[in-house]
Amino acid sequence: MRAAGYEVLVSTVSDYGARLAAAAGADVRVGALDEAELERLVEQAEAVVDATHPFAAEISAAAATACALIGRPYLRCARPAGELGADVLRAAGAEEAARLAVARASAGVEAAGLVTPAAVLLTVGSKTVDVYVRAAEEAGVRVVARVLPVPESLAACAAAGLEPRDVVAMQGPTSAELDAALLRHLGATVLVTKESGDAGGLGEKLRAAELAGATAIVVERPAAQPVAETATGTLPAHAASDAAGVMAWLAVVARARPPAPPGRLSLGLLQVYTGDGKGKTTAAVGQALRARGAGLAVVFVQFVKGGPESSELEPLRAAGVRVERPAVARSGVLRGGVTPEDRAAAAAAWTAAQAALADDACDLVVLDELHVALRHGLVELDEILDALAARPPHQEVVSTGRGAPEALLAAAGLVTEMTPVRHPYPNVPARRGVEL
Prior knowledge:
About 40% of the residues lie in helices and about 15% in strands. The chain is of the alpha/beta class.
């Protein structure tokens, strides 16, 4: 997508997924999304590609609903379903699959006249392992789960009551020969998997069951959830099955998008500059000057910075940046305590920031040292997040300061952490024109 000129943000639940996306060169946010966070991401996007797992029905429905409510083009990219032979048993969910698996495994052992425990090999992930373990324990059947080698999966297996000998931690998809060998090694007569398509290794798993003479049980995909209606009706939801289909849809969306006014961004993001190292405000000043060089309207709001002005403010004003700096006295934050003057200055700065964030004519808003004001309770995080979510879609925002809160990081399209490797202070005092 980037090669075609699109800015892409990948949202993933797990660190494992984040590593895969980062390795492909994508910008990534990590962690589960609640409704408010999902809506903020959708509002910041021009289009949403839902490439979640075929069984991630809940978040998929939530994404489609958010797009319908907010008014963003939505595409469901679902891997194609695989071919299931006549000998494959189908189950509508984990509970039905567990009942079938236990019954088949027990029957297979009895028919063969064996005294070894019946065994089932699970390749359904870790979220529903407990369902199978409960059913198996009641029937005296052994369950072995093949899961991803990540802490979350191993913890789920342990919580379900599986012993280490009953867990195979391995990155898939694997070959049919390997899974067949595993079935034989375990003495498993049943393999349970999901209808995840060939991209998820379904064909190889079915072939493995055939090679090992085991029964294959496939959990069918959940039905698509209904999308909420809006006051103007539901936006059309489109579907694709591969990257080529996604790119073709994005090209249609791009052609239908109204052109941005001259000198205006087509999509505004939140940039967060944080960390203990020097350079956060410096980077924000550079961003402000770059924006002015492109003809964008810029407002630069400083929280808690009082005392003599730093050297960058006058050049910013000369470049046409509107600078809002209510603080006059040197901040008490720097001396270990918040003063009434700090509270008054922060309140005035937030009033100015709110006006800028609501101004459709403003293209870039810099909230300098916002994180410090948040950390000391001078402004309310919920108010900040609400104003950011409601700002014009073309408006870029930069926030700076140490200790950016997690909710702000989650809402950001870009996060930069300044890490102190070496600093001359206190041996070299702050120098005018360099540090101030």
